Amino acid sequence: MELWQAIAIAFMYYFSDSPWPFGQGYYAWQRPLVGGFVAGLILGDPVAGTIIGATINLIYLGHITAGGTMPGDMALAGYLGTALALSAGLDAQAALALAVPLGLLGTVVWVFRMSISSIFVHWADRFAEQGNIRGVQLMNFVPAQVMLFAFKLPVVTLAAYYGPDLVKAAIDFLGADILHALSVVGGMLPALGIAMNLRSILKGSTVPYFILGFALSVYFNLDIVAVSIFGAIVAYLHMTFTRKGEEKHGISA
Question: Per residue, what are the HEC states of the chain?
Answer without folding.
Answer: CCHHHHHHHHHHHHHHCCCCCCCCHHHCCCCHHHHHHHHHHHHCCHHHHHHHHHHHHHHCCCCCCCCCCCCCCHHHHHHHHHHHHHHHCCCHHHHHHHHHHHHHHHHHHHHHHHHHHHHHHHHHHHHHHCCCHHHHHHHHHHHHHHHHHHHHHHHHHHHHHHHHHHHHHHHHHHCHHHHHHHHHHHHHHHHHHHHHHHHHHCCHHHHHHHHHHHHHHHCCCCCHHHHHHHHHHHHHHHHHHHHHHHHHCCCCC
